[in-house]
Specification:
The chain has 374 residues and is of the alpha/beta class. The chain has a single domain, classed as Rossmann fold. It contains 14 helices and twelve strands. It has helices at 5-12, 119-122, 144-147, 154-169, 180-191, 219-231, 233-242, 245-255, 264-274, 279-287, 295-298, 319-322, 344-347, 349-362, and strands at residues 28-29, 46-50, 56-57, 63-64, 79-85, 88-95, 101-105, 127-131, 173-178, 196-202, 306-311, 331-337. Helix 4 (154-169) crosses helix 5 and helix 6 (219-231) packs across helix 7. The longest helix is centred in the middle third of the chain and has 16 residues, at 154-169. It comes from Gossypium mustelinum (Cotton). InterPro entries: AB_hydrolase_1, AB_hydrolase_fold. This is AB hydrolase-1 domain-containing protein.
Amino acid sequence: MLMAAATFNSLTLPFSKPEFPFSSIARTHIPTATLNLSRFRPTGFLLCSLSSDHPTTAAGGQLHHKTNTNSTDPQPQIHTCTWNWKGYSIRYQYSGSSGPALVLVHGFGANSNHWRKNIPVLAKSHRVYAIDLIGYGYSDKPNPREVGDSFYTFETWGSQLNDFCSSVVKDKAFFICNSIGGLVGLQAAVAKPEICRGLFLLNISLRMLHVKKQPWFGRPFIASFQSLLRNTAVGKLFFGSVATPESVRSILCQCYHDTSQVTEELVQIILHPGLEPGAVDVFLEFICYSGGPLPEELLPQVECPVLIAWGDKDPWESIELGRAYGDFDTVEDFVVLPNVGHCPQDEAPHLVNPLVESFVSRHSKSPANASTTI
């Protein structure tokens, strides 16, 4: 979960050694500044309802929700659905009836509810989807020991994202991603470039736990520690110690610069799915995932436009390292978000939403031709 990121970053950063060039200049710095789902097109095997509430699981793993019937609420309605992907139940949210398609991809330990401040605003002029990656949120969490070591990887999540666009969105889409979600978006865009119209990356994970970013003398220590967590009771004891409201709140207060945004609602958004069966095994599997692609390996392969935005007070993913990504030819701009931490979409939606709208507008056709079936 998101909850342990601070622990592992502080553990491994002293050993870390970035392998890509640095740039001392951010291309764009925006001043502090403005924020706030609609008709669903049923496709395939789906279960949908209207909701602004957290889902509960009923018999058969289906999600059931209450409907927001407040007639005075001007916001577009949010549709919460499940999609059957390769036999697994995947939860997503949808809103908006026209305009370009956007798919919002959450970070480590989070879920589609982490976009609750973005979906209603963006849905006014876009078709917005927010998905729970398999293993996270209210999607299924197959046991890693049963599905194999190569299941919880960026290749799997990238394939899930592309299949989602083909089966549910039925259109090309812009991927709006936070943290490890950025790797998912990049992997999907590289695997099937015909699907992704553009990538908007927020504080993308630097993957400092990656084996390539560890000097030779640090690798055995990290590998031993990961093995201890994954293969002994220590891992579940550790997870139990952080999977509490107090620990989640404390860790969120580390990664949010404006701690007033760490509300009880946010704590429950992160904590509740992490208490579901199987969540601990996915958590331990991912923190032992030291291979796979790096952002600097994927960015040169992307064919669509890319914009990177970064909260300059992120204690986990240093902006000084992140600036280097702005130097890639595929990246059109690197935007500094002042006084913002690791999750800008939730901490500073008044900064992020206009940036998303502007980016999508620049790279979209006219509204009449915005939809292209794939």
